[in-house]
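Late entry, written up from scratch paper. The run itself happened at the end of the previous shift, but nothing got recorded in the book at the time, so transcribing now.
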Amino acid sequence: MIKAFIFDFAGVITTTDAYWEWIREKNLLDKKDIFQRLSEDVDRAYITHDQFLAEFAKAAGVREEVVWKEIKKKFLLN
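Output as recorded:
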């Protein structure tokens, strides 16, 4: 019986980590600590995806509607 299914999407299923690539392209690495905490919090289910998106957009200075739309364009499947 399967009790858990665990995988690492970025860098395993995809060839790049689109999240960090987008952050680098937008010159937001000075806020790396904020984005790292948000990434860990959503991965651990401390915050919902909607909370993550709202906080991410606020920290990045962009509208929520464009965040995943732009990041998803960077995903290249292995």
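DSSP finds five helices and no strands in the chain.
(Scratch paper discarded after transcription.)
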